[in-house]
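Shipment paperwork, digital attachment
Item: protein structure file
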Amino acid sequence: MNINKVNNWLKTIQNAICPTYCALCDKPTEEALCEICEADLPHLDQACKRCALPLADVDIANPLCGECLVDPPAFDEAIAPFRYAPPIDEMISHFKYQHHLSMGRLLGGYLAQHIVECATTVDALVPVPLYPSRLKHRGFNQAAELAYWVNRRTRIPAYMDLLLRVQPGPDQRSANRKQRQRQVRQAFRIKPAYTHIPERIALIDDVVTTGATARAAAGCLRRAGVKYIAVWAIARTGKQEGRTRQKPPALDHHP
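Attachment content:
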């Protein structure tokens, strides 16, 4: 018997018993998003090779933004499948602030697929940690959730507690680049229990805004001897997008 036919029958039966709905518009669909919402996702097509800042044009001979040319970050490369724009911004915010972990699974799947298609091989995944009080308040670390789903798809080992956040810093959503850099400069430490650290690491986060957090975390890893550091995130903000990030209202899910 054809296994594909069996799988199609099983999916048909499952949808009849327990139909699924688009995570954004609530229309019935066999996938997580309907075709219309899937087509509306803001894919990041042209970006700085070093920090993933969205660019109007990319010079193949020198694919870096002005900031990376003047002040290169401690990480070697950043990739993100999406721009931080609707509806990705709402999806990320509902995942983080409304505890919609199913949205995290969906976003983690998009990130994992993008990594499989275009990312450089690394030895380990390291989620950007939260300060303990913020982790307690939120109840989970969104970067760790994403690292879990990337690990499930890629089988790259995840070092969930290799990095520690030792300085809280204020809420950074309204801070500019220089303010963020000051806030997080000494924010990270390597957990003392780790006597061996992989040489090639991918930092996992949900959004890269000014890059200050990624720079600080990468700097900590670099001082510990890590030779190659990538930043893998769901989305990258543009210069204006990073100044207007807000928590959206709760999504209305189909009962």
